[in-house]
């Protein structure tokens, strides 16, 4: 169930127990009597949070406020200063690549990075509390923080479509204060959970059974050349070595894909080096010939599959009884390059050229982004996204797959010009994905990957409990 929060009277926020800890006084944002942002422009709008907790462990509504602004003209993208940050240590999370975030620290507004997803200001010995700055979604717009001039913190608000514009915003940023940084984030997310109503918190969901299993992913062992015999030998090697896996993830390399120049009768399995697969598109929902041609060595009873992915999954689980779960990989749009248009058996799709926002252009160079921008994405229109996931997931469930790793998630923001903007397009896709996961994989048989952006966190986590938290599965390099 949702956090036990209720609306309270805004006019009563200054009375007794609810004496405001957070306020905008003149041109200063103040927390517990301490200025934390100065020179706040006059076009900034502040609304005290109307949400107070009705539980024993109260979240006073006075510790949080929503921030917006008024612009001179309606536009699809605004960059607006919210005040200057001077000599207060902060920690933050920002997108250093399209798909991934990392930690960043500093003390002044100029120290922030573009595409910052959250900021926590350090508490002081003199009584200033920890302060969370959390960019939000508002209507069809999404916000992030970035450095401005003269130590200003700027908020960037964008729809992703030149057809979706606005000039007034009420709640593109949430500010929350508290004495404990862990409770600070937890309390703020409880407020935003109720405010947006588009996601659920972990304690409202049931994590999948893989959570306490030792799992093995095929990617670094095989990359795109993964095949049944190799998976079998990998599991056997782990079992023989005393570390039998309880979960196996068959990563990229099992699907039927092709390039645009190939005939639709040809599977493009000559892509064996990481990066070569990114211009490819999904050709069919069924597995490629490597898994399709698997033949079980066992004599199976009449009616049971003895060939194909289903036979392989059954044999794997029968031989290695510790393997309770087998997941497979697929991209949010089906494959790296989406779907191949005009292929029988696949839903309608159109190749869309991705457009990077100014913020994304400032992120690190990425091979996947370069490839995808060059070749485009075969995008299924949002109203038919359910057909995409039904096609993939129904087949996987029929052959004994227990769940999916959904990768290449943060792509829709580059494709949304003609689909109502990034928020509306994402809502349609995440709704279809969530419905399919509930139908085929118990509502929780999914791992999110390449998903580090607040669009996904606020829109895509109604059912998803697990996500990949780093760019690499162990630290080959550290981005600081």
Automatic annotation (TrEMBL):
Keywords: Carbohydrate metabolism. It catalyses: alpha-D-galactosyl-(1->3)-1D-myo-inositol + sucrose = raffinose + myo-inositol. GO terms for molecular function: galactinol-sucrose galactosyltransferase activity. Its EC number is 2.4.1.82. InterPro entries: Aldolase_TIM (IPR013785), GH (IPR017853), Glycosyl_hydrolases_36 (IPR008811). Belongs to the glycosyl hydrolases 36 family. Pfam families: Raffinose_syn. This is galactinol--sucrose galactosyltransferase. Transglycosidase operating by a ping-pong reaction mechanism. Involved in the synthesis of raffinose, a major soluble carbohydrate in seeds, roots and tubers.
């Amino acid at each position: 169930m949702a956090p036990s929060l209720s609306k309270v009277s805004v006019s009563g926020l200054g009375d007794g127990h609810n004496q405001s800890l957070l306020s905008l006084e003149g041109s200063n944002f103040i927390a517990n009597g301490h200025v934390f942002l100065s020179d706040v422009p006059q076009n900034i709008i502040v609304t005290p949070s109307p949400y107070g907790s009705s539980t024993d462990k109260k979240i006073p509504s006075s510790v949080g406020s929503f921030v917006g602004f008024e612009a001179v003209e309606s536009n699809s993208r605004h960059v607006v200063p919210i005040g200057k940050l001077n000599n207060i240590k902060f920690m933050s999370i920002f997108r250093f690549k399209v798909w991934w975030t990392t930690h960043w620290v500093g003390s002044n507004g100029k120290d922030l990075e573009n595409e910052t997803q959250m900021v926590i200001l350090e508490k002081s010995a003199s009584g200033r509390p920890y302060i969370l700055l959390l960019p939000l979604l508002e209507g069809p717009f999404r916000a992030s923080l970035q450095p401005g001039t003269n130590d200003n913190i700027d908020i960037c608000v964008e729809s992703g479509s030149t057809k979706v514009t606005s000039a007034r915003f009420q709640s593109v940023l949430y500010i929350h204060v508290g004495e404990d940084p862990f409770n600070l984030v937890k309390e703020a997310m409880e407020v935003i959970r109720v405010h947006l109503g588009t996601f659920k918190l972990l304690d409202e969901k049931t994590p999948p059974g893989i959570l306490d299993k030792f799992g093995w992913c095929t990617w670094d062992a095989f990359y795109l050349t993964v095949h049944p015999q190799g998976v079998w030998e990998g599991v056997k090697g782990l079992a023989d070595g005393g570390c039998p896996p309880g979960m196996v993830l068959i990563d990229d390399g099992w699907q039927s894909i092709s390039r645009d120049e190939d005939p639709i009768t040809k599977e493009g399995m000559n892509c064996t080096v990481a990066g070569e697969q990114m211009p490819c598109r999904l050709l069919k929902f069924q597995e490629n010939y490597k898994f399709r041609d698997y033949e079980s060595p066992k004599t199976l009873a009449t009616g049971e599959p003895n060939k194909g992915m289903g036979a392989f999954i059954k044999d794997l689980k029968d031989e290695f009884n510790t393997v309770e779960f087998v997941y497979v990989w697929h991209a949010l749009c089906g494959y790296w390059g989406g779907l191949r248009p005009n292929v029988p058996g696949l839903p309608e799709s159109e190749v869309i050229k991705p457009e990077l926002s100014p913020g994304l252009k400032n992120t690190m160079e990425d091979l996947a982004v370069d490839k995808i921008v060059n070749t485009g994405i075969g995008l299924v229109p949002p109203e038919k996204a359910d057909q995409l996931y039904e096609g993939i997931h129904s087949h996987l469930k029929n052959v004994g797959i227990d769940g999916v790793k959904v990768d290449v998630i943060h792509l829709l923001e580059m494709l949304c010009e003609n689909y109502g903007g990034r928020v509306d397009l994402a809502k349609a896709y995440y709704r279809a994905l969530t419905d399919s996961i509930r139908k085929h994989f118990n509502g929780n048989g999914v791992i999110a990957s390449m998903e580090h952006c607040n669009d996904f966190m606020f829109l895509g986590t109604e059912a998803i409990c697990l996500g990949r938290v780093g760019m690499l599965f162990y630290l080959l390099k550290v981005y600081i």
